[in-house]
Write a structure and sequence with these properties.
Number of helices: 14
Shape: globular
Order of helices and strands: EHEHEEEHEHEEHEHEHEHEHEHEHEHHH
Strand order of the largest sheet: 3-4-5-2-1-6-7-8-9
Oligomer: single chain
Radius of gyration: 22 Å
Largest sheet: 9 strands, mixed
Structural class: alpha/beta
Helix content: 25-40%
Number of strands: 15
């Protein structure tokens, strides 16, 4: 029996805590491996967060690790296995996140071509629509692979996905519909894949309202007013802000624009990006997701509900769909947009405050909401989701060969030029 082979490519760390898209791609890879596919990944150490990720801690969860520098003129390469997926990780932490393509893109492309030759994938799973992404998809097609595009946000609505795409997978019917209407793209919506041991927190002490990534698109201008109102009207309800791509500075600045100083609120707590998602939920009693920008699905909604945490979300994008009756959906004020740079008024946060107050005032109300969240979260259970991804990728293989079938590319031996920085010291062992 021939085992189908899938190559997953990412421009960043597969388990980047600041990127829901990257974590979704990594989990898809792991689910495919668990369902019988042979899977490899090519990625970098870049993170989308404001601060660098502790890569060593991420690798602590790996089954085996090998750090090499076969090309002294290139960057170190970290090879590791995690949940049955073999990764080739290019260390690009010697440059700013957005500059790695200019400095190290040629080496990444060479690693990609080596995977096409040595691994010979039947399917390439990737995202991105710049010239380099399109060129790699073209080369994968030329090598005989089908190309699956992971479409996890609305960022391609203006540009489209580009050519050399055979199939598109999304995390919600909302995203599928948006791109069909805009570009006529047919895609398949599947539930957000979640690894339970990464998100379930067994020792929860649910005492706080939690917000993740306080950016303008995530509702910072409503959150600033809400945090101020909580402190003045319900000082016994603490609020924790988990920083990610945006830091707490934006929330503080929003408060200044509204005429109040959030730094004086002792129950407003800021916490840097966490490595493992379950750390977010240890003290979370209620999760707030007041997104203004259209969310494809928001992984945190699935993760919170799997923990039995009630979620309160805006009525924007795919959030109501992914709550699936397991959360509270509250319309945003019509004046609040992604261009808003001052906090909303007190009236706009009243519906949010009322639900929050009920969640903290009455244990019966809270337990009922928690039970609804757990019931709704069943759609994200791996036992339900893994077969769906297996069937989808099996269907991609059955859909027939790509139209373009030139010969596989020849191996390249041209040495790379560029800066070199020695990678972290670490005891290692080879990957089988």
């Amino acid at each position: 029996m021939v085992v189908p082979r899938v190559l997953v490519t990412l421009p960043q760390l597969p388990h980047d805590p600041a990127s829901g898209g990257a974590r979704t791609m990594a989990t898809i890879a792991e689910f495919l491996s668990a369902s019988g596919f042979r899977v490899r990944g090519l990625a970098t150490t870049m993170s989308e967060g404001e601060s660098a990720v502790d890569v060593a801690r991420v690798l602590d969860a790996a089954e085996s690790v090998l750090i090499t520098n076969d090309n002294p003129e290139g960057t170190p390469i970290i090879r590791f296995r995690r949940r049955g997926v073999d990764y080739v990780l290019q260390d690009v932490n010697d440059c700013p996140p957005l500059a790695w393509r200019q400095r190290h893109g040629r080496q990444y492309d060479q690693l990609f071509d080596e995977e096409l030759i040595a691994f010979g994938p039947d399917i390439l799973l990737s995202f991105g629509a710049d010239d380099h992404d399109v060129a790699r998809r073209r080369r994968a097609r030329a090598a005989g692979a089908r190309v699956v595009f992971g479409l996890f946000h609305t960022g391609y609505l203006d540009s489209g996905l580009g050519p050399y795409v055979d199939s598109v997978v999304t995390p919600s019917r909302f995203i599928t519909t948006r791109y069909r209407q805009r570009w006529g793209i047919d895609s398949t919506p599947l539930p957000t894949p979640v690894q339970l041991d990464e998100v379930l927190c067994p020792d929860r002490v649910p005492t706080r309202v939690t917000v993740v990534n306080p950016s303008v698109g995530k509702g910072a201008m409503l959150l600033a007013r809400l945090a101020h109102t909580l402190e003045t009207d319900f000082p016994d309800i603490p609020m924790e802000v988990i920083e990610s791509r945006s830091s707490g500075r934006l929330l503080i600045q929003a408060g200044f624009a509204g005429g109040f100083d959030l730094r004086r609120h002792p129950n407003l707590l800021f916490r840097p990006t966490v490595t493992m998602p379950y750390e977010i939920y240890r003290n979370t009693r209620v999760l707030l997701v007041p997104s203004v920008a259209e969310e494809a699905s928001a992984r945190v909604v699935a993760e919170a509900m799997l923990n039995g945490i009630p979620v309160i979300v805006s009525d924007v994008g795919g959030l109501p769909e992914n709550c699936a009756g397991g959360g509270y959906v509250i319309p945003l004020p019509p004046t609040l947009t992604t261009n808003t740079r001052r906090p909303t008024n007190s009236e706009s946060v009243r519906p949010w405050i009322e639900v929050l107050a009920a969640m903290f005032a009455d244990d019966t109300t809270y337990e009922e909401a928690s039970a609804r969240a757990r019931t709704a979260s069943e759609r994200f259970s791996p036992r339900s989701v893994i077969p769906q991804y297996h069937d989808y990728f099996s269907g991609v293989l059955k859909s027939g060969p790509s139209a373009e079938q030139p010969e596989r590319p020849k191996a390249q031996s041209t040495p790379l030029k560029g800066p070199y920085r020695r990678g972290p010291e670490r005891s290692s062992q080879s990957i089988d």
